[in-house]
Amino acid sequence: MFIQEQLKKQSEKLTSLLGIEAPLIAAPMMGVTTAEMTAAFSNAGGLGVMPCGIMQGSEILETVKKIKELTDKPFALNLRVPGREKENEEATKALFDALEPLRDELGVEHRMPTIADFEEQFEAVLQADVPVVSFSFGGPREVYAEALEARKIIMMGAVNSTREAKVLKTAGCSVIIAQGAEAGGPRQYFENPVEGSQVGLMALLPPVVRVSGEIPVVAAGAMMSAQAVTAAMMMGACGAVLGSLLLRSKESAWPQSLKDQVAWCDDAATRLSDIGTGRLSRIIPTGIIEALSEAGLAVSPYPGQLRVLAPIFEAAVAQNRGDLLEMALGQAAQLAPQSDTCAIVTKLSDELKNYWR
User: Which domain of life does the protein's organism represent (predicted)?
Assistant: First the structure.
């Protein structure tokens, strides 16, 4: 009975802070998460998170308007902090030139896309009036943190190490997400080198919980069942981030060709690669990733690589070309169900309650 009461106490530490019912937070999956998925996640009692990624300010405001039409529950916007490693413009141009035939095939305009300025995105987020903002690839600088605190907006951030947890704690984040090496999508490192940022969740969680003190820590990586979430909470987490669990959902933006592949991916199918975005990510190597790897082109650090590939990815989704997408997913993604987001989150939430009775 003591264990169940302790888990409930940890859960309430997160849910009361965020104004949600279940200790579950959506992963900001660029290219997968939609306004509909975000709203459905929140309607199921968790915290939906919309990735702003490379959105322009106007796109952020339009998306927020759509989400608010679908839910009156709390949700968050996710921003990617500009990295210390600058884009390699020469490598970006070389990739752009090499992909001219593919753009012709897909009907994509031969124009180097621009990436939204972080300042523009941040101003749009402030204007959007949301209760929570999450950060990837680092924490907010003081000027941004002060602007959010002045509006009583809760800040969340993700880490791959205890050192990074200390940074986010100092930066004013009220929730810290510990991302294990099992997680799909981009790694969250920003203080440690990438080589030292591949810590498994079981090794990462306890020290991050310790250094975070009273700040609730949320586990990310292979959170595919109530058993996995409970195991993470037994090590001190206050909740879990759900990502791969939603890949095959009705609201997922992935084309059916990718959704159909997920069930056939085992725990050894993923690889770490920076070819798709310029940021090391856990993915399944698709045709375009393998072709670019064999071509031996230098990778332009994020967002350079993504700047070139984003229009191709967008066209590939529209044309159901899974071979031309970056297929980011975690090591337990094969367990992802085919259902709608609300049903998936509600089922997991109910199973957690049964564990804690």
Answer: Bacteria
Instruction: Say how many domains are in the chain.
Output: 1
Token pair of 213 as six digits = 């003190």
- Across the chain, what does the average pLDDT equal? 95
Distance of alpha carbon 329 from alpha carbon 281, whole angstroms: 9
Question: Is residue 91 in a domain?
Answer: yes
**pLDDT tens digit sequence for 115-167:** 889 999 999 999 999 999 999 999 999 999 999 999 999 999 999 999 999 99
User: What average pLDDT score do residues 287-312 get?
Assistant: 95
Structural domain includes residue 355: no
What six digits make up the tokens of 232? 């993470």
Give 125's contacts (C-beta < 8 A, 6+ positions apart). 52, 60, 77, 79, 133
Residue 187 sits in a domain whose CATH number is 3.20.20.70
- Beta-strand runs (E) in the chain: 24-26, 48-51, 75-80, 132-136, 154-159, 175-179, 185-186, 217-220, 239-242, 271-273, 281-284, 327-328
Residue 249's domain spans which residues?
A: 2-350
Q: Is 169 helix (H, G, I), strand (E, B) or coil?
A: helix
Residue 356 counted as domain residue: no
Q: How far apart are CA 49 and CA 234, in angstroms?
A: 25
> For the segment 172-211, what is each residue's pLDDT rounded down to a tens digit?
999 999 999 999 999 999 999 998 899 999 999 999 999 9
How far is CA 307 from each of CA 57, 240, 329, rounded to the nearest angstrom? 17, 31, 21
80 pLDDT more than 90: yes
Cβ atoms within 10 Å of 106's Cβ, excluding its own: 17
Report yes or no on 38 lying in a domain.
yes
- Closest listed residue to residue 99, CA positions, set 33, 91, 260: 91
Give the count of beta carbons closer than 10 Å to the beta carbon of residue 160. 25
Torsion angle, alpha carbons of 154, 157, 162, 166, to 10: -50
- φ and ψ at residue 177, rounded to 5 degrees: -100, 120
Phi (first) and psi of residue 306, to 5 degrees: -70, -30
Please state the three-class secondary structure of 130-158 as a single string: CCEEEEECCCCCHHHHHHHHHCCCEEEEE
Cα 62 from Cα 14, distance rounded (Å): 29
Q: How confident is the model at residue 1, as a pLDDT?
A: 56
